Structure of SDR family oxidoreductase:
Amino acid sequence: MELQDLKGKRALVTGGTKGIGKAIADELAGAGATVIVSARTKPDDITHHFIAADLTKADQVSALAKEIADTFGGIDILINNVGGLTTPGGGHSTLTDELWQQELDLNLISAIRLDRILLPQMIEKKSGVIIHISSVAGKQALWNLNMAYAVSKAALNSYSKALSTELAEKGVRVLTVAPGPVRTEPMVKFINDYATSAGVTPEEGMKQLMAQTGGIPMGRMAEPEEVANLVHFLVSPSAVYLTGTIYAIDGGSLPVIN
């Protein structure tokens, strides 16, 4: 029997229909939470309450929040998971103003907007948890692969820390989870695309990419469910004294002291 430590809690997971987001949504539901997921398009196999929303659009963020308020009366847990690497590699010369704005809108501004519109009801009841899903790239940018993405995640880390300090006395906890490589469809595609451009096999492409970051001491990528397990703990009653911290889940790959 799964631990029902989130029974009675309402959780929103953005980007919750696949990959890390789906694993988190399933994990929280298994722990007893009522789970709402959002994404741009609805998949055929969705089992949680679904709300279609492009969170880079302010009006759709407002519509999402209104439906949550009307249907559920608010939320207790917010997982800002939506995001991704959408810009090309190649360094500063490949990144236009539009591409920089695109990456910031997806990985930073979408979370800021959603936090701002959902926080008042958390503050009013002096209870709530916000998790920002970041990336180890926020602490280790690779200029030739992910410059704009890394900068957007570094900004998310800083914003998350500042918000946690603001809200600590108001009963709302804010934490950041920073995965390293996770075995998801976008990651597999990224590796395959890199391998194709480099003229090597996907296995060799993976080795080359990992060599740039110092490798993964544990010798493999994370599974989405492993990230979900960490998120479950952080939003649970067992973590009530935790706020403001970035938790890297990277198999030991980040070559810095957190």
In short: The chain has a mean pLDDT of 92. The first helix runs from residue 19 to 30. The chain has seven helices and seven strands.
